[in-house]
Specification:
By secondary structure, this protein is an alpha/beta fold. The protein has 3 domains: about 170 residues, NAD(P)-binding Rossmann-like Domain (Rossmann fold), CATH 3.40.50.720; about 170 residues, Dihydrodipicolinate Reductase, domain 2 (2-Layer Sandwich), CATH 3.30.360.10; about 90 residues, 2-Layer Sandwich (Alpha-Beta Plaits). Helices cover about 35% and strands about 25% of the residues. A 9-stranded mixed beta sheet has the order 12-11-7-9-10-19-15-17-16, sandwiched between helices. Strands 3-2-1-4-5-6 form a 6-stranded parallel beta sheet, sandwiched between helices. A two-stranded parallel sheet has the order 8-13. Helix 4 links the parallel strand 4 and strand 5.
Length: about 450
């Protein structure tokens, strides 16, 4: 390695790690031309040292010694791609303590232990970069941190999990139930064998936690984020959404609210009906998109591959290049990792879901007999909820593979005018307690302005 080059140590040689090696090697000339010096992969650590990744490893030390990699003087920059919150946390802190900048794609770790890691980086004058942790190859974090830094961010709406977006898209195309489409997604490699992390919204909650911190300077942990996945979404919900001019997407949403008591943050993950003619609604398959509204720039949309070997590697290597410039300057001090200076970050109260005021889609499953519909609408009226429309579907919509379609029940779909969610929840509790309602009611929130 020439004296001018900087050495990269890669911990984790799975799909993304393989992509990083390919980008560093395949685009070495372009990277050096942009940096003014070479960036070279000198060492890799992974427990599996036998599998062929299709990468040329001559001149690169490859073993299972991650600690040795961090301590190696030829390694100037460390990339952590093993995931999880145990060993990854320990190794990142070790690298920072030795003054070595770190690049990671580990959104779960940052959403849980971000403050500890950023504090360690600042204490040891070593930066942490994490563009690939949200949106894969989409440069959303750098855009919030730099390109939109002059703005007061008003809201962020994101399709930030490709697995759930693929499942919802396929359910819409074929009218198939969730379980059938999920199995196909697993067979095709779009979903993990245990898909809970994705379909229950946990992955999106990690990501929206980071986006809220960068947009509003809010200190949050993902456990505070109200989170709901897509398991309860049925083909009927998707069909009904289309009839009303909407599509259903799993969104991560965060907004800033300013009032007499100061600033509070809306931050939540749940299936959402959005206008079918909106740009965000047109994002299909495993693609990601994030809509950001700034007070000066107005609405913006960032779109691209949210996962995958090379798109994610693109973001990782971009971070490496940014940190390499800082190493060459001889000191840390790039733009603050979370956009706001550490002393400006502060805990901000999260707006309770009960305070949300919006239109809602409600689906009930009730026995088809006189008086039941009157009970449903009456309970909504008693809670002060104004009804925009009511549709009682025929028994043909009670699918034989859906246990909710048993006992001669039929679906009843209600669209409300804007209402307080706490009132809606009270009404749903009262309706579900009725003997002729055969399954828990479903609520899908509607976002009109994206």
């Amino acid at each position: 390695m020439s004296p001018e080059a900087l050495g990269v140590g890669l911990i984790g040689f799975g799909t993304i790690g393989t992509g990083v090696a390919k980008v560093l090697q395949g685009n070495a000339g372009a990277i050096a031309a942009r940096l003014g010096f070479p960036l070279r992969l000198v060492r890799i650590a992974d427990l599996d040292t036998e599998r062929d990744r299709g990468v040329e490893l001559s001149g690169i030390r490859f073993d299972g010694d991650a600690e040795g990699l961090i301590d190696d003087p030829s390694v100037h920059l460390v990339v952590e791609l093993i995931g999880g919150t145990g060993a990854a946390r320990r190794l990142i802190l070790r690298a920072l303590e030795r003054g070595k900048p770190v690049v990671t794609a580990n959104k779960a770790l940052l959403a849980v232990h971000g403050k500890e890691i950023f504090d360690a980086g600042r204490a040891h004058h070593a930066d942490v970069a994490f563009e690939a942790s949200v949106g894969g190859g989409i440069p959303i974090l750098r855009s919030l941190r730099e390109g939109l830094a002059a703005n007061r961010i008003l809201s962020v709406h994101g399709i930030i999990n490709g697995t759930t977006n693929y499942v919802l898209t396929e359910m819409e195309k074929g009218g198939e139930p969730f379980a059938v489409v999920l199995k196909r997604a697993q067979d095709l490699g779009y979903a993990e064998a245990d898909p809970s992390f994705d379909v229950d919204g946990i992955d999106a909650a990690h990501k929206i936690t980071l986006l809220a911190a960068m947009a509003f300077g809010a200190e949050l942990t993902f456990k505070e984020v109200p989170t709901e996945g897509i398991r309860a979404i049925s083909p009927l919900d998707i069909e009904s959404a289309a009839e009303f001019g909407y599509r259903i997407k799993l969104l991560g949403i965060t907004k800033l609210r300013t009032g007499e008591d100061g600033e509070r943050v809306e931050v939540r993950v749940h299936p959402t009906m959005i206008p079918a003619d909106s740009l965000l609604a047109k994002v299909d398959g495993a693609m990601n998109a994030i809509a950001v509204h700034g007070d000066a720039v107005g609405p913006t949309l960032f779109y691209g591959a949210g996962a995958g070997e090379l798109p994610t590697a693109s973001a990782v290597v971009g971070d490496l290049m940014e940190l390499a410039r800082e190493v060459k300057r001889g000191s840390a001090g790039r733009v603050a990792p979370l956009s706001f200076l550490p002393e400006s970050l502060e805990p901000k109260p999260i707006v309770p879901l009960g305070e949300l005021f919006a239109r809602c889609y409600l689906r009930f499953t009730a026995v088809d007999r006189p008086g039941v519909l009157a009970h449903i609408t009456g309970a909504l009226g008693e809670a002060g909820i104004s009804i925009e429309s009511v549709i009682q579907k025929g028994r043909g919509h009670a699918r034989p593979d859906d246990p909710e379609g048993s006992r001669g029940a039929v679906p009843v779909v209600v669209m409300t005018h804007p209402a307080r969610e706490s009132a809606v929840r009270r009404a749903l509790d009262a309706i579900d307690a009725h003997g002729d309602v055969t399954a828990p009611s479903r609520l899908v929130r509607i976002e009109e302005e994206l």
